[in-house]
Backbone:
């Protein structure tokens, strides 16, 4: 059985971890870190402490009405991309533990094109 990193959980929701093949499970945001548990395979999980996360990058469309995915960038273990049932509430729960200057909005299509031609 998996031992949880958190002592209390602030928010739990259904989510998808996008790593080539999507893994369906649940996100748990608590006082000590971000956790993802797979529904089908109990040994397939992620536990990221808050001090390990450097940035949270969210794809924002239609002035914040639609957020298809968000990405957690860590110091040593790379980037993790998730999509949640209600990502706005997930990002609000993360904002309690990650400072606002470490939460970013992803570049739009036109910003990416401008960067390519500069």
Residues:
């Amino acid at each position: 059985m998996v031992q949880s990193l958190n002592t209390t959980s602030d928010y739990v929701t259904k989510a998808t971890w996008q790593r080539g093949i999507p893994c369906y499970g649940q996100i748990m945001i608590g006082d000590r870190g971000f956790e993802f548990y797979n529904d089908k395979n109990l040994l397939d999980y992620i536990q990221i402490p808050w001090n390990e996360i450097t940035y949270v990058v969210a794809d924002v469309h239609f002035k914040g009405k639609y957020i298809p995915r968000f990405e957690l960038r860590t110091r040593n273990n790379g980037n993790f991309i998730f999509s949640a049932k209600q990502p706005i509430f997930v990002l609000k729960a993360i904002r309690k533990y990650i400072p606002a200057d470490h939460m970013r909005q992803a570049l739009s299509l036109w910003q990416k094109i401008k960067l390519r031609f500069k």
Observations:
- The radius of gyration is 15 Å.
- Residues 109-117 form the longest helix (9 residues).
